[in-house]
Amino acid sequence: ASHLSGKRHRRLRALRAERREQELRSLFVSGFARGTDPAELRRLFEAFGAVTAVVMDKDRVGARGVSQSR
Q1: Partner of 23 at 20 to 30 A CA spacing, among 9, 13, 14, 17?
Q2: For the domain 2-69, what is the CATH code?
Q3: Domain range summary for the chain, segments of one domain joined by +
Q4: What residues contact residue 66 under an 8 Å CB cut-off, 6+ apart?
Q5: From first to last of its 70 residues, what are the pLDDT tens digits of the chain?
């Protein structure tokens, strides 16, 4: 039980909480045109609220992206 108050445990717990919060604000999308750029995705998703980040992976077959909101 003493490990629960340790520095490493507190750091890992904070990291897990941050990841959970990020999961709640993130939306995975796929199937958009290969020529789509991050600015275009941002414009599309801003119709539903503020967008804090757009991450796109075009190296795989098909385009994929993640949109994060506040």
Answers
A1: 9
A2: 3.30.70.330
A3: 2-69
A4: 26, 27, 28, 29, 53, 54, 55
A5: 677 778 888 899 999 998 898 888 888 888 888 788 889 988 988 998 888 888 887 665 555 566 666 6
